[in-house]
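Section 3.1: Structural characterization of target chains.
Under the original work plan, the team committed to producing a structural model for every single-chain target entering the pipeline before any wet-lab resources were allocated. The record below documents one such target. The sequence was received from the expression subgroup and is listed exactly as submitted; it comprises 809 residues.
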Amino acid sequence: MEIGPSSPALSGGVVIGNAALCLHCGNPVPASRRDAYCCSGCLAVHRLLSEAGLEGYYRLRPTRIRPLLDYFERRGQLDWLEASPGARAGSLDLAVEGIQCAACVWAIEKLARREGLARLGINAALGRLSLRFDPERFDLRAYLETLADFGYRVRPIGEAGGEQDPSRSLMLRLGVCAALSLNTMSFALPFYLGLSETGGALQTWLRGLSLALTSLAVAYGGSYFFGRAWRSLRHGIAHFDIPVSLGILAAYLGSVWSFAQGDGTALYFDSVNVFITLMLLGRFLQERTLLSNRRRLLGSEAFSQARVTVLDPRPRELPWAGLRAGQRLLLQPGSLCPVEARLEGRRAGTPAPAPTAFDRGGQPGPAEDGSAVAPAEQRLEFDLASLTGERQPVALAPGDAIRAGARLISDRPARLLATADFEASALAGLLPSDRGQEELPVLWRWSVKAYTFFVLGAALAGLAGWWPRDPRQALQVFIAVLVVTCPCGLGIAVPLARSLADQRLAGLGLTLRQPGLLERLLEVRQVWLDKTGTLTLADLELADAEQLHRLEPAARRALMGAAGASRHPVSRAIYRELAARGEPYPETGQAREIPGEGVAFVDPSGDWFLGRRMDPQGQARAELRQNGRPVASFELRERSLMDGPASLARLRDMGLGLGLLSGDDPGRVQAMAAEMGLAPEEARAACSPADKRAAVAAAPSLMLGDGLNDAPALEAARVSGSPAWEHSPLADRCDFSFASGSLAWLPELFATAQALRRALWGNLVFAWVYNLVLVSLALAGLVSPLLCAVTMPASSLLVSLTTSRMVTR
């Protein structure tokens, strides 16, 4: 299926108001695009779904999902398959990125309908894919490559998140205790419905079964809390597990004592089971959320774990932190330069690449000032976007200095001589320091301590108050207080609220990287944004992508061959649009990149060259030439975020101050500010890293930036965020990272923090009111096992429903 201007796939776009919505993701289509897609990634996947007959995907997906802006950059390699024991054994568990909704699960299952597959399991919440197959019949690589084509990136779990799952044992405990609870409640139901105390053998048999099942629940499920409570006591810590453990033991031992006495007035077997099950459920939610966050963090490349090849005295991999001045490094294409360095030439005896028709026969040409420049085969191109935030590739020759943080975008490795230690490099100097791990929120710590002392004090007061009059009643009151003070508002609702908040943010493309972020976000009064990569997409785009269809087939093939062989931002923009429209990479022809000039491509149709020319207004344009004759020129530009003005307006309505900080020239910064609805005084241009830091430090601020020149400001911010583009040295040092391409998540981030605060305070108030009322009744001797059996699950259900409503609405 070829998609062009007259394709049916482009003629039925959805229009709301004056904005057309992308046929794939449902987001607004920029006015600069003349098709029905917001980006080339969405166009590519929509074409693939149509070709595969999977149009049902669009009936299942939500109204809007995240656009596939980084579709062509995020596809991973599958070289690890060769060394994977699971691939050879037919049993493989993988991490999969890109699952957003039920439609994604449906598509992955449909694509898996291949010979030799025995079982497919998908955990959308954790992003896990489980495969069981016949290695001789099932083409695993072909299936995983197909998933990558559709935007689902897979990697081995051991690469990120291969640590042991601590929630697995909790899930087993929870399942066992839930089953025991259901059975114990069924045995208690006859007594609540009027079975006489003189029930004879039936009464004894039902209570005996309840005792046996409750003993199992206490031994297996309760032991989780007993061990943690004991360790807390040994260290003098008033932990939440102490009153939980006391409640379990008191209710169980009191019920055993009542059973032994033949008195059924103080049997809490069903309540003990329900109590253990609810507490395990809350702890399971908490551990599951923590594990999910850890796996998302490990899924991105950690700056602290980055390594580079050192050539002295023999090639070996060293972490960046161990690099010293004088070492010779081998930098691979696409990698960041970790230290201040100098580019070295090829070693003696290494042949130069064969010249093409466009590299002047390997001879140096004149520079603009008339001086000689290095031969093309000795120059390499570096992208300084991670330093400045601006896409400004530069061509460097042997002997030229390279700044730490520059990215090699040429297609061959670079030999470097480190001129400074890593600790002294500009890269390490700009990076923020670790914040350190924060403890639990103050609200949680205060509530746990107060709840612990309140429960113990109330129980001991009841015991002391009733003992002189009726020791037996005193013990029952003591037990009733410990049982009826259900900590569900803290033990279930708080983990549930955090889990729902994290899921909501993950659905927006956010990865939380520092603890306490949502609590600190409530202190923010000012939002500062960098320009490139934050208010604009990190990559360039063609101003008129449809002109590709007006090219002759031979020119389109040559353009694909030239653009696909280069990492230059201009080449990548052209390649993305061609690939999205199904243009295959040419099977014949030879490409050669000439740093600082362009890409040569030779095939039977002629000698082609994709380079740069200046238009009459002084703007750079990409130009395709055949045998020296211009064939087509392409205008490229930065694309600002369509939802930027509306998102910033929502932040302003929330009472937040807004500002733009950029190192760019004043004209471009003011133009961007006007487009985003910012006042001229809210935009600051030509800012140095120190200027940005000073502005951010003036008030509790949230700062968004993607360049290393933003790092001092990010460090000074109360909350910091960075785009989650690959190999970013900033993302794992900020409080959170976000999927670039939209700002709609930003007001939602603040709204989620506010909703979480409402849920926490609401549950805290409910927990205290509930416990004060029930403790008063227990101290008066009015609490029965039936009341406990009814109020405990009812209160848990109530706080769970209200929490879900407050956090997700």
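The chain has six domains: 8-57, 79-159, 167-295+439-488+773-795, 303-363+371-430, 509-538+641-743, 541-637.
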